[in-house]
Inverse folding.
């Protein structure tokens, strides 16, 4: 997704703009650009491709301006090209703008502006905004008033940063449904799409709400509502620094983040398990009496977070007897869900900015549901809009492929299910066993990580393959869905996950000598059934890698890995580790860029 940086300072703007864009590279992009104000003129440079291309363009330029905006573009409207990259400027070259989001009514606005004599250079939806700014500036002779008019006309999502020779010291900012954070030091005011881009400058930040306007002016920031009334905002101090966002000695962020899981899980559990029999979630204290009023629970998310939801819903239903439903956020809005004030809706998102998940959350609120967000990013949109938020404490996740965010989501979903069970009076011996098991997870994962070489060797089976099959049942099915997604996104090997019992209803037709089947059978009540399905694939020549528990081994499989003995409900957390490492090493064998897989973005802020 697009990344934005902006600065108004008493020193040169370019270093901040470029370092910030570098920190936002993880969001995925296909071109980059900057504008600074130099001697009352706009200086704009853009380049298709990597940020380095832009840096090369700027190498021999003297860029001394103190005010500027930067952008990395992830194409939505119009192909990746120099012309479509941001910043976009008005015809008089006096206003320059960067945008993240989608302007949904851009066609209608474009037609109107063309009739007014505006010339468009790009195919983007964003360019309409700069011409609209120009149009309203000509009417109001005031940039802030023009911006207010613009946000009353545009529909869709946007984070906008605008500079102009008309008011050369300032950056004008507005946002709706796209992330933007603002920071301040004594001599600079800065803004960016995400916290890591500004952390080297300041830890003191403001979060802009939808329809609010901010004006940066060399160390000061003024905030206004959409009608231009001045508003005050609270400063938040970010509790981590950029060291946490660096690779820490690992070759890639993905490998670092896989190895961080014992720590991330310990952090997520910190203060939430009391003694051997109590879950403490102060975030939900005022909900305790409400749980008995829910007659169903919906779990909604995208991608990896959706897979975490499949596990979470299964566990909540088992522990609390509340019927649960899981839905991909991109479907939720359009499937006319039967939800009301008796429905508990749980939204899971690492970034807390995913457009589909946000749209689903808003629908649930409209229908009167109680909403709980599970998010990793502090102050993210989802946490500001949901009724309650429980944070996963995974720390910044930089690799596009989610690893530690996934396992910490599983942990929070488990804690939530147990907390609700506790509130409804369902604690029993099983409940206590789970609590004991949860506390042991960081240590167990550390032990699994010691077998890394083994998983690297398992990845060799994928060396010459274009496809892989993952099978499991029940909770193991959610685990294999996530394992297959990981393999697809980082190694580009086509991987499908099937309910093991469904194989014989179709997919088994694909199995031939040499096919690779990765099977997960960790649930004692159904492991034997999965094992029969494994035998059916072996009979057709498949090579099988099996992840299972003691006592469920199978003859004739190529590899068997025995997972530590914990309550079956906790196995999804453990088996995630080897499946992530297989995907990671398969990507290495195939020579893929694991941290920034093609076509993918870390934070998907468009529908
Ligand atoms: C995970 O590896 C993916 N890259 C992706 O599926 C991700 O989980 C999804 O886009 C949801 O993101 P979120 O958790 O930030 O909402």
């Amino acid at each position: 997704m697009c990344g934005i940086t902006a600065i108004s300072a008493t020193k040169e703007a370019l270093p901040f703009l470029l370092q910030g864009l570098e920190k936002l590279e993880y969001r995925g992009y296909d071109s980059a650009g900057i504008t600074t104000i130099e001697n009352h003129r706009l200086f704009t440079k853009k380049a298709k491709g990597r940020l380095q291309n832009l840096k090369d363009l700027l190498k021999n330029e003297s860029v001394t301006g103190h005010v500027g905006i930067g952008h990395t573009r992830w194409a939505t409207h119009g192909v990746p090209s120099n012309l479509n990259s941001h910043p976009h400027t008005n015809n008089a070259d006096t206003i320059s703008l960067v945008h993240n989001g989608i302007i949904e009514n851009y066609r209608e606005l474009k037609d109107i502006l063309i009739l007014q004599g505006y010339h468009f250079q790009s195919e983007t939806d964003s360019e309409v905004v700069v011409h609209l700014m120009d149009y309203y500036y000509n009417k109001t002779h005031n940039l802030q008033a023009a911006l207010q008019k613009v946000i009353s006309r545009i529909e869709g999502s946007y984070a906008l940063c605008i500079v102009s020779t008309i008011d050369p010291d300032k950056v004008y900012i507005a946002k709706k449904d796209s992330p933007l954070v603002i920071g301040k030091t004594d001599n600079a005011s800065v803004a960016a799409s995400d916290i890591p881009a500004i952390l080297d400058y300041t830890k003191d930040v403001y979060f802009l709400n939808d329809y609010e306007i901010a004006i940066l002016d060399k160390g000061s920031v003024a905030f206004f509502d959409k009608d231009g009334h001045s508003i005050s905002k609270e400063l938040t101090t970010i509790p981590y620094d950029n060291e946490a966002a660096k690779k820490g000695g690992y070759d890639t962020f993905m490998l670092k983040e896989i190895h961080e899981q014992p720590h991330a899980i310990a952090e997520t559990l910190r203060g939430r398990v009391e003694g051997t029999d109590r879950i403490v979630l102060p975030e939900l204290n005022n909900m305790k009496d409400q749980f008995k009023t829910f007659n169903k629970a919906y779990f909604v998310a995208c991608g990896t977070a959706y897979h975490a939801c499949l596990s979470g819903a299964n566990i909540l239903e088992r522990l609390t007897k509340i019927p649960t439903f899981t839905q991909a956020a991109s479907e939720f809005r359009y499937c006319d869900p039967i939800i009301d004030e008796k429905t508990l809706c749980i939204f899971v998102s690492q970034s807390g900015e995913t457009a589909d998940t946000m749209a689903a959350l808003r629908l649930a609120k409209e229908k009167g549901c109680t909403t709980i967000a599970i998010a990793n990013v502090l102050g993210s949109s989802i946490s500001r809009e949901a009724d309650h938020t429980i944070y996963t404490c995974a720390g910044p996740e930089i690799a596009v492929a989610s690893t530690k965010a996934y396992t910490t989501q599983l942990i929070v979903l488990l804690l939530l299910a147990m907390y609700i069970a506790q509130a409804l009076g369902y604690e029993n011996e099983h409940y206590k066993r789970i609590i004991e098991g949860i506390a042991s997870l960081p240590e167990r994962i550390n032990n699994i990580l010691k077998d890394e070489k083994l998983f690297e060797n398992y990845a060799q089976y994928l060396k010459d393959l274009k496809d892989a099959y993952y099978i499991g049942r029940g909770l193991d099915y959610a685990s294999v869905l996530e394992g297959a997604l990981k393999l697809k996104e980082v190694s580009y090997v086509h991987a499908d996950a099937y309910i093991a019992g469904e194989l014989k209803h179709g997919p088994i037709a694909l199995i031939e000598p040499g096919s690779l089947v990765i099977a997960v059978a960790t649930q004692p009540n159904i492991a034997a059934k999965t094992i029969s399905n494994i035998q059916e694939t072996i009979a057709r020549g498949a090579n099988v890698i099996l992840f299972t528990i003691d006592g469920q081994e199978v003859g004739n499989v190529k590899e068997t890995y025995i997972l530590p003995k914990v309550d079956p409900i906790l196995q999804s957390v453990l088996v995630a580790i080897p499946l992530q490492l297989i995907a990671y090493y398969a990507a290495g064998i195939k020579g893929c860029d694991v941290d920034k897989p093609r076509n993918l973005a870390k934070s998907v802020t468009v529908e």
